[in-house]
Specification:
Length: about 290
């Protein structure tokens, strides 16, 4: 039982557990000193393989083209793909020393900067070889994600996108609890089985009191190169029904497109000129403007 004799009645910053608590403990951690991050947007999904990294990359590029300073925290520690999309195969994160507000020399990590200026931190930038596997248990992986926030100098960032691993386990929970996430976007694919998975992701965000900006469906269709007809290779989509059930907008439907796939695989995502995520980017930019 905590001693309440010295209680200052500031429950939001108190780490004690007592019967007089009137507000939940704020578990958000401060970023590295000198960082400036206006908004944090999580890109999540209840399952893997639906295109979270593609959506993250497209959004960062679009918002960056619109004049905002963007960053990506790649929280998919065991399966990072953001560096590949941006053509950052050999780059390594550099550590440096700086003087903090107390006059002490502290070490920090510099994010890698893409050709167009997006600041990126990914596990691949710390490995001797990008193909080296990361064979760690959940608590260690969560600790690395936390350090990507607290030890990396994220200076002058208008919006940070967090590419989360799939599911509702350790790492997404760490992201939601450690980072001041302003909102999330849930990525899905058209298969019927995805409905339950999307609902899990949305309900997790609701439980954590994090707003959901909307849903993005990837692999929605293939457009016939001859007649332009949209071919639903996974069957009819049910994304609108899911969105309606939760009162959320469908922000984008991204097709399976060979040119886009090849461009991303070649590390040239910043060269893509597509408008699939424009509506989602506009909602994010409106959040920045509200500051």
């Amino acid at each position: 039982m905590a001693d309440s004799s010295n209680c200052e009645h500031n429950c939001s910053s108190c780490g004690e557990s007592c019967s007089q608590r009137t507000a939940p403990q704020d578990m958000h951690e401060k970023p590295a000193e000198g960082s400036s991050i206006k908004k944090v947007i999580g890109i999540v999904s209840g399952k893997g393989g639906v295109g979270k990294s593609l959506v993250t990359s497209l959004l960062a590029c679009k918002v960056g083209r619109d004049g905002f300073k963007t960053a990506i925290l790649d929280a998919d520690i065991t399966g990072p793909s953001i560096p590949t999309a941006f053509g950052l195969g050999e780059e390594k994160a550099e550590a440096g020393l700086r003087t903090d507000s107390n006059g002490k020399q502290v070490e920090y990590i510099k994010p890698v900067v893409s050709e167009k200026g997006t600041k990126i931190m990914s596990m691949n930038f710390l490995l001797p070889d990008q193909t080296d596997p990361v064979i760690w248990r959940g608590p260690i992986i969560s600790g690395v994600v936390r350090q990507f926030w607290t030890n990396v100098l994220w200076d002058d960032v208008d919006v940070m996108f967090v590419d989360c691993p799939p599911g509702t386990g350790d790492v997404p929970l760490t992201v939601f609890q450690t980072l001041p996430v302003d909102a999330i976007i849930v990525v899905a694919s058209p298969q019927q089985l995805v409905r339950v998975i999307v609902e899990k992701a949305v309900k997790m965000a609701n439980t954590m009191n994090i707003p959901v900006l909307g849903l993005i469906e990837n692999m929605s269709y293939v457009k016939c190169p001859d007649c332009g007809k949209e071919i639903k290779i996974f069957g009819e989509s049910n994304i609108q029904g899911i969105a309606d059930d939760f009162g959320l907008p469908v922000l984008a439907r991204i097709p399976v497109e060979q040119t886009m796939s090849v461009t991303v695989d070649n590390g040239e995502v910043e060269q893509l000129d597509v408008d699939y995520v424009d509506d989602a980017a506009a909602k994010i930019e409106s959040l920045i403007h509200k500051i």
